[in-house]
Amino acid sequence: MWEIELKAALVKRLPKRLRNFLERLRLVVEVAADGWRYGKYMAPVDSGATQRLNQRALETQVVKDYHRIEKGLALASPKRPFGEGPAARLKMLLPLASADSEYTTHGRSALDALNLWNNDGVVDDVIAPVRNAPESNGSDPLELFRSRHSVRDYSDRAVSEELLRSVVAAAISSPSVCNRQAWEVRFFEGAQKNAVLRHQNGNRGFGESAPVVALVTVDAKLFSGAGERNQAWIEGGIFSMSLVLALHSVGVDSCMLNLSLNNRSLNNLRGGVGLEQNELPIMMIAIGYGAQGNRRARSPRRSLDEVLRPVRSKS
User: Fold this and answer.
1) Burial, 87: exposed, middle or buried (Cβ in 10 Å; 0-12, 13-18, 19+)?
2) pLDDT tens digits, residue range 85-141?
3) pLDDT tens digits, 146-195
4) Taking the CA atoms of the chain, what radius of gyration do you get in angstroms?
5) Best exposed site among 87, 131, 202, 219 by fewest CB in 10 Å?
């Protein structure tokens, strides 16, 4: 720690232009490290090199293509015929996938549904089922969002494994690009929890009081191409928010903990937790029941007009 403080003190003595240059250089180094990791672990674009696909990545490509068929059949007026590309890739990939995998079963049924539509103009109700109108219980559904606040003062009441499993099961319903569902979550308690929290720099004064800490990660191997370079963080953020709202819906409090770390610190976290290099840490989440009389930050919100921006027409 003293070495970091010493370096910071030396940097402060440098001319402002040089400090700005060094900060930009640090940014370039961090971005280059992110790009190197993504380039090393990303999947081939649309199965261009099947020999590079492990079983999970292969299954993910199968999911991408059968989901393209599902989405097409869910349209109000699907094209006919459609799906030549996804069908060709599925026919190539399915023989390589595990025969007893549910992904293989879904892929084959999607192919059958695509053929049914293209040949007979009939939509398979299993692949693209009619959506039932949601039922209302009479309460204000938006209150779930308005009433959630970050908690930084927890009681020692335990959070059961059964409850944690149930909220993860709910969060799995999160939207995901091509239904790839690349998220993973680990829960830490006790000494393990305190050790993990040392890799996060915003939990001082309350982190250790939380009974549970979650670590959300995303597998970089399930994305491909330059266009998807940021998708992992989008996916991880969506899943994390769903997880937090699921916790809130069953009366469990939480606080999202950022992982705004450089690559050296992230690699220290990977080593401490046992993550593979292709696993991208998205965030930690402190979880527990708020202590009696706990307070929350005021955290005033932006006005609606600041967020809801008008669309400017082109003149």
Assistant:
1) buried
2) 999 999 999 998 888 888 899 999 999 999 999 999 999 999 998 877 555 555 788
3) 899 999 999 999 999 999 999 999 999 999 998 999 999 999 999 999 99
4) 23
5) 131
Q: Which two tokens stand for residue 248?
A: 């809130």
Cα distances (angstroms) measured from residue 239 to each of 28, 53, 117, 168, 235? 29, 24, 33, 9, 6
213 contacts 188 by C-beta, under 8 angstroms: yes
**Token pair listed for 225:** 């191409």
Identity of the residue numbered 18: L
- The structure tokens 């450089």 sit at 262
Buried (b) or exposed (e) across 240-267, using 16+ Cβ within 10 A? bebbbbbbbeeebbbbbbebebebeebe
